[in-house]
Amino acid sequence: MASLYQPELDRLSAWLRYAIPGFSGPLRATRFAAGQSNPTYRLNAASGAYVLRRKPPGKLLASAHAVDREYRVQRALHGSAVPVPRVLALCTDERVIGSMFYVMEHVSGRNVEAPTMPNSVPGERAEVMDEMARVLAAIHEIDVDALGLADFGAPGAYYARQLSRWTRQYRASETEPVADMDRLIALLGERLPDETGQRRLVHGDYRIDNLLFAGEGTECRAVLDWELSTLGHPMADLAAVIMQWRLPPGPDGRGLAGVDRADLGLPSDAEFIAMYCARRGIAMPDDFGFHLAFAFFRMGAILQGVKRRALDGNAANPDQGLRLGAYVPRFAELGLAAAEDRTP
């Protein structure tokens, strides 16, 4: 699946000429290496560069890989305080390339794969983290009514819905029992928070490698990968950032565990949370341990799905999928530990 086959390219090129004004071929497609969920391709044509995001082929879990939702939210956000690529066209006809897809503009920028930012200096790292907090706060301050996103998430308590959804997804992809995941699911059900006044747009997978920064400087040019976006509790996004930082450094964890953050110019967990809260003008969160525990649970459920797809032959990278799936018990363990600490 390194690229699209020529018959698919031919059908895609014909569809793009119809769907995108000014498009002209010939067309080449190269798949981006990163990502285990929705396959993403760079399209090079005579009329310019584009990016295509598609559902993966094969049997999929219900409600997963919703590229149409990605398209909708990015279309609504374009021109707002949240930087996103401009989407150009959505195709629901699976006869074109075998699955639903959408096409957006290609945004030139710098991708930061790890929060350690090894090629940066302390001052630049601090500025990137401040920008990361600013953009996350901007997402959570979006007026969903004004942008036509008032129905972008189901009504009712976000965490109760999410716990139910990801428990179903986890059970559907379960390959062997994990006792700590069972305990974590039960604990989260007992600690569901009051969500009065907390219904906001949430990204669902907010982390530094899903942001594009300017080639020179630290401005965020685009927030990518809106597959898990919905309306819900903003602390879920904030906790997802902190969750990743509590993982080990390296290509799998891409975290900050054991790193001397002060030496690198990186904020502590509490300092980043304070930066975010200051941007929004809100108080520090109560019972942050619940939000963090949920973030570990959801990521464990996602990795279980990656493992299941690898075993079923539908993963983008089966070997990597199996390797990542082996971390599910560790995420459950970290989730239980996070639930014991109610402070940031």
TrEMBL record:
Instruction: Report which superkingdom the organism of origin falls in.
Output: Bacteria
Show the GO MF annotations.
Answer: transferase activity
Carries keyword ATP-binding? no
Which CDD domains does this UniProt record tie to the protein?
ACAD10_11_N-like
Concerning SUPFAM superfamilies, the annotation shows:
Protein kinase-like (PK-like) (SSF56112)
Coiled coil (residue ranges)? none
Q: Where is the Aminoglycoside phosphotransferase domain?
A: 29-252
Q: Enumerate the UniProt keywords alphabetically.
A: Transferase
Stated name of the protein: Aminoglycoside phosphotransferase
